[in-house]
Recover the amino acids of this structure.
């Protein structure tokens, strides 16, 4: 033991400036977590008074960042498990993909009553219940586009790579880590950028909410913006948006830009990119002596241990009696889980049926008219988003120099919660005669277009350089180039962006059709307004009817349109 310790000390690397900065950042992160822990684990306070002074913003920002980080890690874990199961098991796909369609079609605020009441019941005396409820709500705003991206990427893995994996008899773990995750990396990184921006977009609704005429507020940047917006305090709104802009720029430079540059190594191509994405942070980290030392001494042995453990489990055969018993127990456990799920779903369906039975015919007519109005606004928003995101996204994805300027700008605009600026926009439109109908479409567009843009950028940046060079050699230009190369290449990404953009537009209808500004409440005809109003007044039958109507419409659109497009991407438009 003493020799090992001496050897470890002798091989400690010589620290450089970047290593010292990394240690300082790790210490700052740890101290920040210790500082916010008492707030998260304190006694429950359903509603706190939000201090709108700028001096309160650092503490609020730290709490919001912690919630966002936990929600993102949960979303990434869900993406890897759910997406892999749906893509690699056809029986599971028939169940999981419809569930995913339904869940991504349910608005964030429709999750609110069940999530909030469940978490408060689990932790009745501590703020932890409200914190977990807020994290789950942020999670629902992040996870769906990442899951669809990973699922579609697995369906379009190049056939020759899968054939090589089968011929080499790779285990599922080796295939995942050496082929499938690298192929999905570019789309997953770009959708992570979008998910983080989407988390900021819905942060106001996830930190400050009303249920059964009771206000629940958690200290954070989202609740700061929500309170400032509801009071019409324009200076406070600008302070909050300024902090959000600063955070977005910092995250772009310190996290997302290095990940985008790193993921470019996984492009399936034969020719090297003469101008690959670059990051000054990634270049600095590559000069570090501490990170390679940690990789050799800690990370690599850990990965090798996991590989060996999974390989042994995968290579085990059910020939022994013990293995046979284990397989039987596993099968019994699956059947038991299936029975529990079926019983739970049946009980939930009965409760839902009882609530819907209390709806009168005029109320159902009101829901139908509202559904038609919101459907029209969503269709307009998605169509407008498609018109500009496809050419702009392709241009950014194909030109790294343009991407270095435009991608941070797009991420910045996507991260700013439009709901914070919506009162200002609404005042302008009311004075010019546009009103809430036009304003709601604009807000849907702000919540929709980024799903398409970031997916198109990811798809264009993943086009192999040798194909682009071949098109230049053969002078394939103009519409012919779009029809034969660009559109087929980005089509799988466009499907992912379209599915999630449609869901994002329906989600955004809640905050765009029902607006509280100062002492005024403005609303227009639409499902979003019905859901928001029913949530605040605890009208659960109307909330259930509106949510189910929205879910049915989105699922039908996915089944009849986007799912067929996804099959075309899987069979025709992949490498």
């Amino acid at each position: 033991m003493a020799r090992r310790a001496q050897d470890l000390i002798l091989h400690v690397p010589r620290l450089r400036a970047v290593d010292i900065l990394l240690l300082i950042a790790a210490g700052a992160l740890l101290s920040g977590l210790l500082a916010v822990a008492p707030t998260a684990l304190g006694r429950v306070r359903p509603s706190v008074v939000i201090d709108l002074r700028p001096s309160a913003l650092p503490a609020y920002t730290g709490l919001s960042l912690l919630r966002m980080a936990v929600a993102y890690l949960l979303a990434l874990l869900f993406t890897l498990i759910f997406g892999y199961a749906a893509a690699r098991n056809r029986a599971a796909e028939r169940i999981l993909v419809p569930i995913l369609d339904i869940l991504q079609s349910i608005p964030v605020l429709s999750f609110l009553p069940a999530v909030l009441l469940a978490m408060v019941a689990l932790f009745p005396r501590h703020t932890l219940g409200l914190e977990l409820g807020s994290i789950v709500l942020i999670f629902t705003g992040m996870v769906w586009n990442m899951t669809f991206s990973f699922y579609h990427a697995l369906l379009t893995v190049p056939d020759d790579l899968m054939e090589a994996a089968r011929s080499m008899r790779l285990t599922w773990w080796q295939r995942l880590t050496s082929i499938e995750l690298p192929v999905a990396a570019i789309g997953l990184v770009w959708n992570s950028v979008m998910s983080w921006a989407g988390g900021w977009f819905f942060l106001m609704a996830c930190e400050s909410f009303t249920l059964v005429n009771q206000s629940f507020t958690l200290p954070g940047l989202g609740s700061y913006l929500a309170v400032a917006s509801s009071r019409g305090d324009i200076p406070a709104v600008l302070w909050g948006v300024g902090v959000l802009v600063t955070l977005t720029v910092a995250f772009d430079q310190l996290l997302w830009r290095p990940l985008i540059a790193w993921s470019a190594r996984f492009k399936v191509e034969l020719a090297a990119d003469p101008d690959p994405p670059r990051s000054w942070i990634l270049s600095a980290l590559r000069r570090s002596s501490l990170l390679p030392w940690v990789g050799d001494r800690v990370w690599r042995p850990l990965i090798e241990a996991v590989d060996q453990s999974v390989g042994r489990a995968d290579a085990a055969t059910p020939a022994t009696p013990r293995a046979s018993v284990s397989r039987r127990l596993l099968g019994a456990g699956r059947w038991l889980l299936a029975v529990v799920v079926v019983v739970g779903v049946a009980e939930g369906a009965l409760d839902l049926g009882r609530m819907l039975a209390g709806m009168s015919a005029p109320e159902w007519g009101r829901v139908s008219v509202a559904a038609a109005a919101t459907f029209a606004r969503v269709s307009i928003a998605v169509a407008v988003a498609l018109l500009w995101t496809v050419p702009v996204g392709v241009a950014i994805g194909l030109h790294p120099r343009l991407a270095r300027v435009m991608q941070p700008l797009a991420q910045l605009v996507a991260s700013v919660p439009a709901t914070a600026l919506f009162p200002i926009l609404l005042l302008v439109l009311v004075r010019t005669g546009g009103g809430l109908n036009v304003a709601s479409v604009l807000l849907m567009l702000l919540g929709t277009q980024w799903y398409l843009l970031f997916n198109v950028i990811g798809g264009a940046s993943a086009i192999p350089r040798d194909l682009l060079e071949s098109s230049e050699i053969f002078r394939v230009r103009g519409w012919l180039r779009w029809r034969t190369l660009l559109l087929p290449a980005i089509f799988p990404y466009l499907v992912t962006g379209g599915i999630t953009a449609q869901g994002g537009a329906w989600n955004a209808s809640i905050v765009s059709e029902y607006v509280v500004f100062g002492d005024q409440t403005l609303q227009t005809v639409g499902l979003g307004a019905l859901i928001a109003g029913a949530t605040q007044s605890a009208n659960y039958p109307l909330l259930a009817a509106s949510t189910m109507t929205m879910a049915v419409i989105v699922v039908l659109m996915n089944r009849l349109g986007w799912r067929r497009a996804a099959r075309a991407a899987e069979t025709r438009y992949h490498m």
Residues 40-44 have pLDDT under 50 and may be disordered. The two ends are 52 Å apart (CA to CA). The chain is about 80% helix and 5% strand.
